[in-house]
Design a protein that fits this description.
The protein contains 15 helices and 17 strands. The protein is α/β, with parallel strands linked by helices. The protein has a domain of about 240 residues: Rossmann fold (3-Layer(aba) Sandwich). The strands form 3 sheets. Strands 2, 3, 4, 5, 10, 14, 15, 16 and 17 form a 9-stranded mixed sheet that branches. Strands 1, 6, 7, 8 and 9 form a 5-stranded antiparallel sheet that branches. The protein has a 3-stranded antiparallel sheet with strand order 12-11-13.
Amino acid sequence: MNALRELIADRIRTSGPISFAEFMELSLYHPELGYYARAARQTGRAGDFFTSVDVGPVFGRLLAKQFAEMWRVQATIQSPESEVFDLVEAGAGNGRLSRDILDAAQRSDPGFYSAITLSLVESSPAARAAQRDTLGPHAALLKYSDAALPAEIHGVLFANELLDALPTHAVVMGENGLREVFVDVADGQFVERLRDPSSPRLVEYLSRAGAVMHKGARAEVNLAAEDWMKRATTALQQGFLVLIDYGHDEAELYGGAHATGTLTSFRQHTQFADVLQSPGECDITAHVDLTAVTRTAMGGGVEVLGRLDQTYFLLGLGIEDLETLSFRQRLGMKTLLLPGGLGSTHKVLIFGKHVGTPALKGCSYRMRMT
């Protein structure tokens, strides 16, 4: 029996259909029954999908190089007595990626390692409870673990595949204008109902994006991603914001190639178009609107330092490191870099606030997206 399914169905029977955004939030983030709360392991061969972290520690090793460079840039700007560098991971899960980064920093750059104050932002209470064990010898660096961002950040805030999993609204162009997808219950199944948009922001968002949607076209409008970016740029007092995710700029995302929308779900590495029937048991995701993310960031006072494929970001950090890698690690690097895989599907957005426009190694190719 799917307890979350019954909980959602009861809510609908009591209060009426809910927006798809609310359905997705309950499916993924319910504190006890949601996917991210209950699944022991969502990623890797034993999970439901792969991320860059699953290929081994090499991804964290390269991120450590970039963050160490950012620390040095910021150290030249801050007053000499300011030695603390906030390393904040959003959507941190149990802290596995941060563990890889800290392992590399401790081994290769002890000066950087000694400056780090670690914060892990994670909505799942179960994942937060596992963070100190995952961090192991680095647990003493963890000063903050919560579902919300810290109030102030002086350093780097980074997120790997966070925005694609934020609850998104789903819309359809109808006969007489835009309609929003709501979730109802009929004959024991979750079904779609089309209603007037729940917020004027949905129409405003698509208008701002220049979206031309023909009758029957579907799309996602991720207001939560905009809201998160506003909170992130407010919290970042000085430093860098690094986002790694898959998505497209608005011209492509709302073009003909994605006229059926991008919502999908994953379970045991199998992709399903029907995202309604197994809440809490599978991942639900939608492609990120990279243009909206960038526009919102700039509105929060940050400068764009780089927008590029993960391939070019990692190449900029030093492919010569391949010579020091084991055969297994080289295979992992190949997975991270190859076009058509994680290398081109994943994009890296790098922003800076009150740090000028430094020539970061990860931005060697600066603006290069395929």
